[in-house]
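Troubleshooting: if your tokenizer reports a length mismatch, compare your output against this known-good record of 115 residues.
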Amino acid sequence: QVQLVESGGGLVQPGGSLRLSCVVSEYVSRIYTLRWYHQAPGKELELVASVDSHDNKNYVDFVKGRFNISKDTPKRTVDLQMKSLEIEDTAVYYCNAYLPWTEDWGQGTQVTVSS
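Known-good structure output:
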């Protein structure tokens, strides 16, 4: 089982930036895919961004050009840099690690975009 701990959430004004970080208990290079999801109030869990073991990155359309996912192998972290935040980005953000024999989640970190 992979343990994941997110941090970096908070309150930010529209147009602002936040950097979320997820500490991973295993070597990030060994994890098939690391993902960030979010769940807005009253909505379903939604994939935001992912990075695989070859460092291929994918983003959902509504964050392209605004968010960047990155891994730091020595630090065992996967970060989500968020810029030009919009009110619609308000959600709990979860880190996810996928391996063929397990899929694990962090506890989530709240991001609130409000003026």
